[in-house]
Design brief:
The chain is an alpha/beta fold. 37% of the residues lie in helices and 12% in strands. An 8-stranded parallel barrel has the order 1-2-3-4-5-6-7-8, surrounded by 5 helices. It is elongated. It binds 3-methyl-2-oxobutanoic acid (KIV).
Length: 293
């Protein structure tokens, strides 16, 4: 039996979807913290849906699912496949899908084509794209054409080859000023919220104060309007790298290893499948009586 919560059904069978919308998220500026987590599959989305406000189909799936070193190799087709799964597996959270590297940077028209495919093929509520001032005209173009956009500034992993590594951003006065300006420009362009990644607390607080839409922090302190985290980091399902800002709430990777070791031992010892896991199992042979001396 499925353990994934299913959306409630209307008479006649069509689901009632009372999902949170980008507008609901935008209205949470300076209110209760917004909770966001990444999801890449329908079952995981189902487990997380009722606990969070936003499910982000992040392109970090390049590392978490596909074994890539960075997000740069993630394609639009990959994002669409996972976006569909997450929308199917959830009922309440607002689902946002990342536009991958190369699908939106060249022009607003490219961005619209990519975002329209993501929206129409997945059923998600909006897209996220990386970049500050340089992407503001694109954000404006998309929003004017019906596409809710979440911004992403600070440490922007798709620009890793320019940033020269996963480095904390906004440490100098000039960098901090530029980040605050980026956030304001994206908000003015119509972004409904902005992910702020990898910056120091005073800068995160300054951005949050200056920006009219909610900031969602990752490695950006508690001074943001909400938080986003990569699910595998808090579940202990990714061990190649553990960022300082993440907290391990569980060690599920170790559990998986233990469970599979037990299964393997059972198969090798012919303990699995047992009669209760077998169709038409042969009746157990009566135990041989031992001869009395
Ligand atoms: O791809 C992702 O998971 C993200 C979050 C880190 C914000 O963009």
């Amino acid at each position: 039996m499925s353990t994934i919560p299913q959306p409630p059904k209307r008479e006649g069978g069509s689901p009632i979807t009372k999902r949170l919308t980008p507008r609901d998220i935008q209205a949470r500026k300076n209110a209760d913290p917004i909770v966001c987590i990444t999801a890449h599959s329908a079952p995981m989305a189902g487990f997380m849906d009722s606990h969070v406000d936003l499910l982000l189909v992040g392109d970090s799936l390049g590392m978490m699912v596909y074994g890539l070193d960075t997000t740069v190799g993630v394609t639009l087709d990959i994002m669409i496949a996972h976006g569909k799964a997450v929308v199917r597996g959830s009922a309440k959270a607002c689902v946002i899908v990342d536009l991958p590297f190369g699908s939106y940077q060249a022009s607003p028209v490219d961005a619209f084509k990519a975002a329209a495919r993501v929206m129409s093929e997945t059923g998600c509520a909006g897209v996220k794209l990386e970049g500050g001032a340089v992407m503001a005209p694109t954000v404006e173009y998309l929003v004017a054409r019906g596409i809710p956009v979440m911004g992403h500034i600070g440490l922007t992993p798709q620009s890793i080859n320019v940033l020269g590594g996963f480095r904390v951003q906004g440490k100098s006065g000039a960098e901090a000023k530029a980040l605050v300006a980026d956030a304001k420009l994206l908000a003015d362009a119509g972004a409904f919220s902005i992910v702020v990644e990898g910056t120091v607390e005073p800068v995160a607080r300054e951005i949050t104060k200056a920006c009219s839409v909610p900031t969602i922090g990752i490695g950006a302190s508690v001074g943001c309007d909400g938080q986003v985290i990569v699910a595998e980091d808090i579940l202990g399902l990714y061990s190649a790298f553990m960022p300082k800002f993440a907290k391990r709430y569980a060690l599920l990777g170790e559990e998986v290893s233990k469970v599979v070791a037990t299964y393997a031992a059972d198969v090798r010892a012919r303990r699995f499948p047992a009669p209760e896991n077998t169709y038409g199992a042969a009746p157990a042979k009566p135990a041989k009586k031992s001869k009395k001396r």
